[in-house]
Amino acid sequence: MNDLLALALQAAGGLDRWRQVQSLDVRVSLTGASYERREYPEGVPNVTLRVDARQPAVTISPYARPDHRGYFTPERVWIADRAGKIVEERSRLLHVVRS
Predict the structure, then answer these.
(1) pLDDT digits over 74-84, tens only?
(2) Which H, E and C letters describe 57-77, residue by residue?
(3) Which of 3, 12, 19, 77 has the fewest other C-beta atoms within 10 Å?
(4) Domain ranges (residues) in the chain
(5) What is the DSSP string of 33-61?
């Protein structure tokens, strides 16, 4: 382990403490040209990102509508309603839109 990484881990409570972290919640507003092109001119304001610390996965809540959540993994992205029904999804292999 290099010195900078060791220093950062120590400042965060050490490697054992970091290994206890399961997820991080961050409150953000997502804006920019990519959202404008996707018909969200105001972006996605005031959402909570839950970042999984164990695997590459992010949940955005709310997303697109107050009763929807967005889910992102390396292989797939999808939007689900409050009941968990998939509203729209995309994967590396296919594009599926559900109504």
Answers:
(1) 999 999 999 99
(2) CEEEECECECCEEEEECCCEE
(3) 3
(4) 22-97
(5) HHHHHTT-TT-EEEEEEEEESSSS-EEEE
